[in-house]
Amino acid sequence: MIGGLEPEPAAAAEVFGPHIERGRQFTEALARHGEELGLIGPLELPRLWTRHILNSALVSPLLHPGRVGDVGSGAGLPGLVLAIMRPDVSFTLIEPMERRVAWLERQAGELGLSNVEVVRARAEESKLKGALDQVTARAVSALRTLIPVTAPLLRPGGELVLMKGAGVDGEITAAEKAIRKYRVHDAEVIVLGEGVVSEVTRVFRATVG
Ligand SMILES: C[S@@+](CC[C@H](N)C(=O)[O-])C[C@H]1O[C@@H](n2cnc3c(N)ncnc32)[C@H](O)[C@@H]1O
């Protein structure tokens, strides 16, 4: 075991199914290098599986075959985890920081993920306007600022799949103006992982345009 890494929870094999080996490979790589590369804080190792890896993996059933952009992938959460789980989906990981881009490219290569491309850019400066079917993001910013950055990347009728914390209802209220301006509709909060992980995953899912 890598020092301090949470032992693999029983739910991991269930959540990852046939992709568990790659799930383990990525988790171990992140545990080994994440701190020195500034990708995860030292306090995160004891909850890497439950709070980060499984929490990201739980979003997998919300994705459709097509092109998904993950804005602000950082360590690869949720983008690389979802790419492991969904070989039928093409992932574009959008991340401006050079060191993180290098990590994402190296991991995609080492995991043998042919469904991943990495774009070094801020989402709003990328050339991806209108190009994506779904956009994911985790721990990037509050909805009020995240919607203006993510919604323009979607084709008409595309979907936002934004991972959020317990304060999501307040974020939705504060984002009312952006929700109207970017024609975000049919919004719902989906709670995933009850009974599977200690901290459930909340997703703000909505259609744009
Ligand atoms: C707190 S980290 C979260 C990383 C990862 N999603 C996670 O859950 O661990 C936020 C990431 O978003 C990136 N980011 C911030 N603003 C962005 C933008 N406008 N477009 C794309 N990425 C952005 C940062 O470089 C950083 O890697």
UniProtKB/TrEMBL annotation:
It is found in: Cytoplasm. It is an enzyme of class 2 (transferase). InterPro entries: rRNA_ssu_MeTfrase_G, SAM-dependent_MTases_sf. Keywords: Cytoplasm, Methyltransferase, rRNA processing, S-adenosyl-L-methionine, Transferase. One of its GO terms (cellular component) is cytosol. S-adenosyl-L-methionine binds at G72, L77, A123, E124, R138. Its EC number is 2.1.1.-. Gene3D superfamilies: Vaccinia Virus protein VP39 (3.40.50.150). GO terms for molecular function: rRNA (guanine-N7-)-methyltransferase activity. Pfam families: GidB. NCBIfam families: rsmG_gidB. Belongs to the methyltransferase superfamily. RNA methyltransferase RsmG family. Specifically methylates the N7 position of a guanine in 16S rRNA. This is Ribosomal RNA small subunit methyltransferase G. It comes from Agromyces ramosus.
